[in-house]
Write a structure and sequence with these properties.
Layout (H helix, E strand, L loop, with lengths): L1 E6 L5 E6 L18 E6 L7 H6 L5 E7 L2 H11 L5 E7 L14 H9 L12 H4 L22
Parallel strand pairs: 2-3, 2-4, 4-5
Antiparallel strand pairs: 1-3
Length: about 150
């Protein structure tokens, strides 16, 4: 996994976005959040990243937004890092079973899509079925659709 700090206000609060499969931070670079820094986790070929582990301890509050395949990546990451001060979580258009015939993208459709890709087009992508086991804990829907306003910076 990689991480990029896309907006900073020198805050002690962070909006941490887990981007979808094959995404980079570009679609999120225009975002700002009053009182929050914003970081984007992407390239989920590995579940760990020294940069993210080094970045997160400076924050006393972390709000997490996971999108698409980032939902499974975020759940796996959070399972391994229960010490993080997560105060809000939101999962958008994702599942803990990214490739699953009943709970995600059906295997045949996923295989058809990946088989049609050019060899170098998957450089920034992980193969979801192998990257995250189906036993990852659930980000239980949208806990908060707005960033908390009663937290101290």
């Amino acid at each position: 996994m990689k991480i990029e700090l896309t907006y900073t206000s020198d805050s002690h609060r962070l909006l941490l976005i887990f981007a979808g499969w094959g995404m980079d931070p570009q679609p999120f670079r225009h975002l700002t959040a009053n009182g929050y820094d914003i970081a984007v986790a992407f390239d989920h070929r590995s579940a760990e990243c020294a940069d993210i582990i080094n970045l997160l301890p400076r924050y006393s509050e972390i709000c997490l937004l996971a999108w698409s395949f980032g939902v499974a990546a975020a759940a796996h990451f959070l399972r391994n890092h229960p010490e993080l001060p997560i105060t809000a979580k939101a999962a958008v258009n994702g599942t803990l079973f990214p490739v699953d015939d009943t709970k995600g993208i059906p295997r045949a459709i996923f295989d058809g899509s990946t088989n049609g890709l050019l060899p170098n087009s998957t450089d920034a992508c992980a193969d979801p079925p192998n990257a995250y086991p189906p036993t990852t804990p659930c980000i239980r829907g949208v806990i908060s659709t707005n960033l908390p306003t009663n937290s101290k910076p």
